[in-house]
Amino acid sequence: MRRAWQRLRAGWRALLRAQDLDRTMHEEMRFHIDMEADRLARERGLDAAEARRQAFVAFGGLEKYKAQGRDTMGLQWIEMVSLDARLGLRMLVKYRGLTVVGGCAMAVAVAIAATAFQAFGEALDPALPFDEGDRVVALRYATHTPGGSERRVLREFAEWRDAITSIESLGAFRPAQHNLVTTTSTEPVNVAEITASGFAVARTPPLMGRHLIPDDEHAGAPSVLVIGYRAWQSRFGADPDIVGRAVTLGGTPTTVVGVMPDGFRFPIDDQYWVPLRVRPQQDTRRQGPGIFMFGRLAPGVTLEQAQAEATAIGQRVAAAFPGTRGRFRLMVHPYTHEHLGINEPVRFWMLRITQHFVAVLAFVVAVNLAILTYARTVTRLGEIALRTALGASRGRILVQLFIEALALAAVGAGGGLVLAHGALTRMGALALTDGTVPFWIDLRLSTATVLFAIVLAVLAAVVMGVLPGLRATSGRVLTNLRELDGRTGGRLGPLWTTLVVAQVAVAVALLPMAVAMTSRVVQMGLAPSEPAAGQLGIGVVAVGDDAAGVDAARVSRRQIDLAARLESEPGVSAVAFSSGVPGFSPGLLLRFDSATPAVKHPGIDMAVDALDVSLTLFDAYDARILAGRGFSLADLGSGAVIVNRAFVRAFVEPSTTPDAGLGVRFRYVSPYERPGSRPDASYQIVGIVRDFPSFPREPGSDGSSPTVYHPAMPGDVHPFVLSVRFPGSVPADFAGRFRTLAASVDPALQVRRVASLSDYYDQRRSFWRYLAWGVGLSTISVLLLSAAGMYAMMSFTVAQRTREIAIRAALGAAPHRLLLSVFGRAARQLALGLAAGSLLAAAIVWSADVEPGRAVALVLTVSAVMIAVGLLAASGPARRGLHIQPGDALRTDG
Amino acid sequence: MVNDAALLPGTLDLLILKAVSLGKLHGYAVLLRIQQITGGALLVQQGALYPALYRLEQQGLIAAEWGTSENNRRAKFYRLTPSGRARLGEETASWNRLAEAIAMALGATRHEISG
Prior knowledge:
Chain A is α+β, with helices and mostly antiparallel strands. Chain A has 27 helices and 21 strands.
């Protein structure tokens, strides 16, 4: 043990100082030879050249002793590894098929595992990137039921801020949106209304000026704004005199008092901070805006101790207001977890387990590759035996096989990391197009993730190299030596048969589902866009800062004014409004009257999309009415609705008449979710419109979502979406023109989003496109791996019998009988695998709700591919066996 | 006396330890010292000295440092470590016991056996 440790230590030191050791050894031996040459010249009177020659002879082989010296110092180990690495690289080139299939499969597996490791790791890390960032916590006032959070706690917050001692700098923020008016532009910006304590929690000094201070929170204090580095650069042109500059924010003259440094985006992903004004005397309970609370654990206080104090405070409130607050608790969580929804231990552990479970995928691939590698290793048994006979230890051979496998795994891991980098970059970009990425989430490959991929590659190499190696080197040397002249040891027993059967079974069981999933996602990602989308532009507009509580008459006036100005623009053929962008409206639950005979599921809650639309929206979108009629003025407030074809397909009993579904009545399960509707409101279908847009919103559905369209007047919905129709394509300056017109109507109008409809749809669907690529790539690699595994195993099984075939042919057996016997055995293994796989596939496909006809077709296709691959693999070696000369076969026997 | 006798296996390490126990030496001087203390009776393959020196250094029995030789060249000097000194003691005692035993065996007479 001590000796092994000494060797290891020497080896490690040698690795670190390899070049240095080699150089000093050389210098020392040259010194010796020079000294000896001097002595010979001095004592024997030899000339310099002869003295030197004799000194070399006396020394006895400089390189030999250097090699011995290296060995003694552990340097030989490095040479050995470098030799194995070179051999491993040569094997990659020699077995190109295995390299391509194995490398791709490993790359996809490592890419998925590394992406999951990075993304989940970032989400689960409880620390913010601040000084002692793991001590920043969030407080939530909620019941145990899901979604039971009460955010309207401004009044309570003011009381807790004074009462709680285990949490320092207790603060709060609320996200808001305001129009920022500078001398050059007017744009809506996301603003964090935050208590000054937020900056104390972050412990980050400002870059210029100051951050918010408690005095800013007082009523009557001047309006101040702190901006982030990014906003300072992009919105204010890095103005060095920014501090003290006047702007208008949400209609209020405001002074910029400071700039925060680059990277500071607390509390979520913010660049503008204004004081949150807490007025305990005026704010009544359960009133006012919702807030998010945060703080820093006091020195020496644990999360559990803070939770205990918060629980006691919560119980006091519950006792004081049992009616409204009886079931509420005050909870303390790590800040990051609270804002990512990981606020229950079970969710945390689910994510943690998923994070590591994904890594198992890499091992499934590695085991599969191990099977392939084993086939390769067995073909090299003779070479291994020869090396053993020449004195190589079993460990030495295993190290060689491990390094060869590591070369393959490293190629895969390298490719996987490149893929993971691309995937993470795209994930970040996608998240930004439709929201924000919290500032503590860093979607770049971290050192930990790279190390994780390296560990995966090493473990995979152990599975791929050492396990087959252990089995291959377990036989007797003499038996293996026979392999050198082509004699096989017949070592493939029940294990090999089991592997063949399992390989086929797993492929048949999993591939149909993978193919079905891929086709769904690909269909979603690559489906053609809405035909009219190229001619439509959309703008999402809000009147004022708060989405709720806006005066309907004001909304109506602004909307009509803006629509009129847009209509008078040259080239605009129609302007219509709606409560959302068609195809992406919010979902609601409805229930048909149980007395309605024509519907499939009367009395059961069904999910639909609901959209309020202007009377002219269908015309603007070229959406033809297929049955019934379009909207008229008389329909406003009458309960008349139009539904799309997808709605009829999903809910109405099939019928030969085109007007099936007309006249059907329903109610919404939660009418209050539709602003302005009466609790007892009932709706009747008066028309059926074509599906638009025609692509599905998410995979799994075959087309549009079932949608209900309600007629609406300007002022009924807020914020509103204006759809602008052009006879040709949408002009390039559409967005700029839209914003200018909106500002001319009212500078306070917030244009939250403006784009051509095709760009909007493309952006919404880009996630599915990338997912389609990811899933497609994974499926292809699994298919390739399975087929290659199948091919290797079958061809190897038959190759083992090549000589038996040749001998039987020599003894007079008919070729077709021999082939039948070979294929019969292969076919039995295939059939067994197919049967087991089909049973499993049926169970999986059944549970995944794939259409039965499609499922059978998929299972049959995959089975056919496996049979074809299996027979193809068996035919080559069988033919070779038949072509061996009987004499040759007999000569090499025994 | 037999000139240039071959070295018994394992004895080179013992000779090196003995040579460096008499003073700090570079590799070539170790060779000269062995020739000196054995009266030139033993043949040491010069190159074989170095793997042995490195082995003893790895085992911590001798320590090395770079210095300047008598002809002002950079050379690596070896000295005995405390554990090397202890090992030299053990090996010397063991060798003496073996030598005595061999000498006794070779000096035995018929008279002694029968007596």
